[in-house]
Design a protein that fits this description.
Distance between the termini: 57 Å
CATH architecture of the largest domain: Sandwich
Number of strands: 23
Organism: Maylandia zebra
Function: Stabilizes the aggregates of proteoglycan monomers with hyaluronic acid in the extracellular cartilage matrix.
CATH superfamily of the largest domain: Immunoglobulins
Number of domains: 3
Family: Belongs to the HAPLN family.
Strand content: 25-35%
CATH topology of the largest domain: Immunoglobulin-like
Strand order of the largest sheet: 2-11-10-5-6-7
Helix content: 10-25%
Number of helices: 7
Keywords: Disulfide bond, Extracellular matrix, Glycoprotein, Hyaluronic acid, Immunoglobulin domain, Repeat, Secreted
Pfam families: V-set, Xlink
Order of helices and strands: HHHEEEEEEEEEEEEHEHEEEEEHEHEEEE
CATH class of the largest domain: Mainly Beta
Shape: elongated
Length: 364
């Protein structure tokens, strides 16, 4: 409507003349007629295109849990325009399926507001009037993902999208119940219980490129079920297939049951094997960590220590979920001789007095 009204300012043409011309045009060619009128009379558009645009100098920023990150967003605005104190800057987070946007931060003049779990952790960098970059502090695992910067200045607007990536590790997981027992929501809880989140496809893809080979399908954050294969073989999609990520596609989040791929990042604390004179049952292991001022460690904490800190210990020990595992960064005889890995000894009877324990002491 605004653009049509602009026609009324054209030279030597009255409102009645423009209205008559539009009435004569059929609905099917109305748009073409409008374009022709713009060509003849000159509409109220800038000769150089939009008068405002938004750009991100980097499309991906990498940080870690507990760290800070600045998501770049710069406003490019026609300098001939008067300053608008009501210019609105809004940051949202895109969900993994891109179906929704979660409010993160909004600013208009002196009015600023952060939302939900971002409250108190985000602010604009504000190095200049045209800097709409967002600073996120005390980054959490859930902060991973894509963010949209949107700027609205009167009738002009622009957007840019920036990804926040985290240093970390992807690991396959299933609980004591056994394989293929998790619907999507169970999978989310299972990862959270082990100090992790459900991994994204991009995270699984990067891990596959790093050599992960796992023949059990697991949930990803977008609701698909996939698994990474580097050594094709008959039970895993076929012996004569190429390496890649096998994809079952989107599955029913309530009814379908699989394993899950979890993702975790750096932690603030200390992961360690607790030296004890005797082997422990599960309950004894829990109490031993508590007596040492710690908690029994979670699976995600072991993977983070192994992958990100190079933790290496050839002693099988209890973890919080009742599993027994040990991390090997330097393969050697009797200790994962063929590869660096977190070795898994299963979910033994919790009354067995056969293992040590790994503890975790958080630093606030």
């Amino acid at each position: 409507m605004f653009n049509i009204l602009c026609l009324f300012h054209s030279r030597n043409h009255t409102l009645q003349q423009v209205t008559l011309l539009l009435r004569k045009a059929s609905l099917s060619v109305l748009l073409l007629s409008f374009c022709a009128l713009c060509s003849l009379f000159g509409c109220c558009f800038s000769e150089n295109g939009p008068q405002l645009s938004v750009v991100a100098e980097k499309t991906k920023v990498v940080s870690r849990r507990g760290g800070n990150a600045t998501l770049p967003c710069t406003i490019l605005r026609d300098q001939t325009l008067a300053q608008n104190r009501k210019m609105r800057i809004k940051w949202t987070k895109l969900t993994s399926d891109y179906l929704k946007e979660v409010d993160v931060f909004v600013a208009m003049d002196y009015h600023k507001r952060s939302y939900g779990r971002f409250h108190g952790r985000v602010h604009l960098q504000g190095s200049s009037a045209m800097d709409a970059s967002l600073v996120i502090t005390e980054i959490t695992l859930e902060d991973y993902g894509r963010y949209k910067c949107e700027v609205i200045d009167g009738l002009e607007d622009g957007t840019a999208v920036v990804s926040l990536d985290l240093e970390g590790v992807v690991f396959p997981y299933y609980p004591r119940l056994g394989r293929y027992n998790l619907n999507f929501y169970d999978a989310e809880r299972a990862c959270h219980d082990q100090d992790a989140i459900v991994a994204s496809f991009d995270q699984l893809y990067d891990t596959w490129r790093g050599g992960m080979d796992w023949c059990n399908a697991g949930w990803l954050s977008d609701g698909t079920v996939q698994y990474p294969i580097n050594t094709p073989r008959e039970p895993c999609g076929g012996k004569n297939t190429v390496p890649g990520i096998r994809n079952y596609g989107l599955r029913d989040k309530d009814k379908n049951h699989y394993d899950v791929f979890c993702f975790t990042s750096h932690y603030k604390g200390r992961f360690y094997y607790l030296i004890q004179p005797f082997k422990l049952t599960y309950d004894e292991a829990v109490r031993a960590c508590q007596k040492d001022g710690a908690q029994i460690a979670k699976v995600g904490q072991m993977y983070a220590a192994w992958k990100l800190l190079g933790y290496d210990r050839c002693d099988a020990g209890w973890l919080e979920d009742g599993s027994v595992r040990y991390p090997i960064s330097h393969p050697r005889r009797r200790c994962s001789p063929t590869e660096a890995a977190v070795r898994f000894s299963g979910f033994p009877d919790k009354k067995h007095k056969l293992y040590g324990v790994y503890c975790f002491k958080g630093h606030n």
